[in-house]
Design brief:
Length: 105
């Protein structure tokens, strides 16, 4: 279950993914499979080859891409999420959630 983002943030992420940009969307997330994780970042791009190449620099495997939708993406969790967001200059997405500066869909 996802929460902590608003419709505009989701729309902007989808548009960037469609434009073949590497786009990031961080939100709260609850999943029984990952009881110690409460946020996820979706790193997406509609150009799957570009997404694969981008992911390789972080050790992400192509088979980890969620491609069942029109918005192919990697789910970034835990320490890897923090590390990648730092390197991509996107850590503000995570800190905004942690500081309570978020809205729900």
């Amino acid at each position: 279950m996802a929460f902590g983002i608003n419709r505009q943030q989701l729309k902007e992420w989808k548009n960037a993914v469609r434009r073949e940009e590497i786009a990031f969307l961080t939100h709260y997330w609850l999943d029984d499979r990952f009881p110690t994780v409460n946020t996820v970042t979706k790193a997406g791009c509609s150009n799957v080859e570009k997404l694969i190449q981008w992911g390789r620099q972080y050790g992400l495997q192509p088979e980890w891409i969620h491609a069942r939708e029109e918005y192919p993406h990697f789910d970034l969790l835990g320490e890897r999420q923090v590390e990648i967001l730092k390197q991509e200059g996107q850590l503000h997405q995570l800190t905004q959630l942690k500081n309570g500066k978020h809205n729900s869909l």
